[in-house]
């Protein structure tokens, strides 16, 4: 008699967002291997063929109901207050979602023995000396970064199983109707517009589908700890935009080079940021490709 394999139960929180949506699409093709549940704050799911429950992770009872109806083995928490400038003036809202809500998830991961895979950012660093490794000391310079660091500390002081992923500058299909950076650049320039792009913010843009493949490995093998998962190439936002323009045969003259202070943004930006990815490349199934490979996939998906 052959043993029945019990499927791992994977809960995606924030499944209507950019990363969550890509995770949801990935796992919607893996239902033979995993029991999958999507959840987000909106009434309806943007992904058709996976079960969905509305949740507001800021509300303890909403989290409790979700956890005690699905009993996840793994929770991927992609929900966050991600508007860096708005976080400066909406501090309570940013704290409630990025910190207090994570406390709620930790509270209910414990009793059901779930692993929490939580997402953070290179914005926990000050941007004086990037790219940063997992061992570097965080020192955020804006409120968004502070909330994300506070959420990291909640994990470290908890007794649940967790994996902390720091990433930066996600690009690639959003699935939500919002355009990602690559599509935005292509559409703006093709429409004849000039775009202002900073040349003093440096990082390693991350193709969301490559991030998802590394996460799938973490889920499959129950890997603990902190991982920096980001793109293979470290460059300024301006140079990244040039790479997009060259791939899509767009006039480079449409890209105007500017400096961050000229934007007068509410939140200060860590400039020389980005993440070292050697640990992820060594220990995970993760080998990010050159940008052009991802651009070709985005071009096909978005009809660019
Ligand atoms: N995007 C990046 O470049 C980047 C870079 C570094 C790190 N990260 C981190 O990666 C993670 C995913 O980012 P993302 O860009 O995919 O985020 P996103 O697109 O903003 O998605 C977040 C999702 O969570 C939902 N949500 C908001 N409040 C919620 C609540 N109370 N309960 C449940 N769901 C809620 C949002 O719904 P609404 O849209 O309706 O609010 C949205 O669907 C975040 O932790 C972020 O800090 C992202």
Give the averaged pLDDT, no decimals. 97
- CATH architecture name of the domain at 8-173 and 206-232 and 273-288: 3-Layer(aba) Sandwich
Q: Please count the beta strands (DSSP E, at least 2 residues each).
A: 13
How large is the radius of gyration? 19 Å
CATH domain topology of the domain at 8-173 and 206-232 and 273-288: Rossmann fold
Counting helices, strands and paired strands, the structural category is alpha/beta
N-to-C SSE series? EHEEHEHHEHEEHEEEHEEHEHH
Major sheet strand order: 3-2-1-4-5-6-11
Distance between the termini: 52 Å
Q: How large a portion of the residues is in β-strands, by DSSP E?
A: 15-25%
Helix content: 25-40%
What is the CATH level 1 assignment of the domain at 8-173 and 206-232 and 273-288?
Alpha Beta
Unreliable spans are none
Number of helices, counting only DSSP H or I runs of 4 residues or more: 10
Ligands, ions, cofactors: NADP nicotinamide-adenine-dinucleotide phosphate
Please state the overall shape, judged from the principal axes of the Cα atoms: globular
CATH superfamily of the domain at 8-173 and 206-232 and 273-288: NAD(P)-binding Rossmann-like Domain
Main sheet overview: 7 strands, parallel
Structural commentary:
The chain contains 10 helices and 13 strands. The protein has 304 residues and is α/β, with parallel strands linked by helices. The protein has a domain at 8-173 and 206-232 and 273-288: NAD(P)-binding Rossmann-like Domain (Rossmann fold), CATH 3.40.50. Strands 3-2-1-4-5-6-11 form a 7-stranded parallel β-sheet, with helices on both faces. The N and C termini lie far apart (52 Å). The model has no long low-confidence stretch (mean pLDDT 97). Bound molecules: NADP nicotinamide-adenine-dinucleotide phosphate. NADP nicotinamide-adenine-dinucleotide phosphate (NAP) is lined by residues 13-14, 16-20, 40-42, 55-58, 78-80, 82, 97, 101, 119, 121, 148, 167-170.
């Amino acid at each position: 008699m052959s043993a029945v394999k019990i499927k791992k139960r994977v809960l995606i929180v924030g499944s209507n967002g950019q990363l969550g949506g890509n995770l949801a699409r990935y796992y919607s093709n893996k239902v033979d291997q995993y029991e999958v549940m999507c959840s987000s704050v909106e009434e309806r799911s943007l992904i058709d063929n996976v079960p969905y429950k509305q949740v507001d992770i800021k509300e303890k009872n909403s989290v409790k109901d979700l956890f005690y109806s699905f009993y996840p083995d793994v929770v991927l928490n992609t929900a966050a207050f991600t508007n860096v400038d708005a976080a400066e003036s909406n501090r309570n809202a940013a704290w409630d979602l990025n910190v207090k809500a994570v406390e709620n998830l930790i509270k209910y991961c414990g009793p059901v023995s779930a692993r929490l895979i939580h997402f953070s950012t290179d914005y926990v660093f000050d941007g004086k000396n990037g790219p940063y490794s997992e061992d570097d000391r965080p020192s955020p310079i804006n409120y968004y970064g502070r909330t994300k660091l506070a959420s990291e500390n909640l994990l470290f002081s908890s007794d649940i199983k967790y994996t902390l992923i720091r990433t930066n500058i996600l690009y690639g299909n959003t699935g939500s109707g919002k355009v990602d950076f690559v599509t935005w650049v292509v559409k703006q320039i093709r429409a004849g517009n000039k775009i202002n792009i900073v040349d003093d913010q440096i990082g390693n843009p991350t193709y969301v589908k490559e991030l998802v493949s590394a996460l799938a490995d973490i889920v499959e093998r129950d890997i603990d700890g902190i991982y920096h998962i980001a793109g293979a190439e470290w460059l300024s936002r301006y140079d990244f935009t040039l790479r997009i323009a060259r791939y899509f045969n767009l006039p480079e003259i449409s890209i105007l080079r500017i400096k961050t202070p000229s934007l007068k943004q509410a939140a200060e930006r860590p400039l020389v940021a980005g993440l070292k990815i050697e640990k992820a490349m060594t220990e995970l199934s993760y080998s990010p490709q050159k940008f052009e490979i991802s651009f070709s996939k985005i071009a096909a998906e978005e009809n660019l």
